[in-house]
Amino acid sequence: MTRTLTQHDQRPSNAAPAAPVPGADAGGRARDWAEIQERMLVPLYEAVYERLEVRAGTRVLGLGCGTGLALLLATTRGARVTGVDSDTARLALARERLAASADHESAAAPAEGAGTLLPEERMADAGTEPGRAPYDLITAFQPIGSAADDVRELTPALRTAIPLAGHGTPVVLAGWGPPERCATDAVLRVAGRLTDRLRKGGWRPAHRDDLEEVAARAGLRPDGSGRVACPFGYADQDSAVRGLLSTGVFDGAIRATDRRQVEKEIGEALHPHLRRDGTVWMPNVFRYLIARTP
């Protein structure tokens, strides 16, 4: 959501920058993503790392790495990580997280620094250091299938990343599962309903073949897939609204109307998922595709 759930925009380098979101606080939204929303995808990260046997020495390149939680989980397995993202506020938090993790490593067996984190436009620099081995895994964990142009806009990043890996390297793409198995789908449709009123894009429902389409556009060969349960659970309705807004999915709706209206309609859409103790619980299924580099 986008990313990421995604998910903030992943835009090609020649695209015009997105208009600012009225009332948005980039730092605050990045913190909401890090503290509330990003952890919802931990089952997805762990399932992928387990299946692909990420371990000591695995070199991981994370596209749209956000505030770095997926990278941090990879380092706990001994992986060497590099992350890129177009959101500077999220990258700043990712640096803090990885640095703090590195500080806790044993001096006798230190990690490889705190990982490498780069803005998306400098992704090519991630493979230019003398003697650097090719990446063993490329991940794009920001869920595809909630932004109007995410299928098209992820392609340039993948094409830049592919030459940094060896032949047959796995590339993992993630997306929403079937709408009937994703309780959050009804809440996300608020974004589509509000933008459609003014015929302004920004959201669309996920399509069954989104991941395969992205792989084909990037010249990747599909080689397996899986589904993972990723329920969205929040302490209360306010946390749920903040977490969902941090994904960027509702940015177009805020531009088309206003933040207060969007918050109100998200809150109403959450009512069926409120529990008696005030918590919010929405079961979801996410899908991932493993593709191979040429």
Automatic annotation (TrEMBL):
SUPFAM superfamilies xrefs: S-adenosyl-L-methionine-dependent methyltransferases
InterPro entries per UniProt: SAM-dependent_MTases_sf (IPR029063)
Region of interest (Disordered), residue spans: 1-29
Keywords: Methyltransferase, Transferase
Gene Ontology terms, MF aspect: methyltransferase activity
Pfam families reported in the protein's UniProt record: Methyltransf_23
Compositionally biased spans, kind Basic and acidic residues: 1-11
Signal peptide span: none
UniProt-listed GO biological process terms: methylation
Low complexity: bias regions: 15-24
Name of the molecule in the record: Methyltransferase domain-containing protein
Organism of this sequence: Streptomyces corynorhini
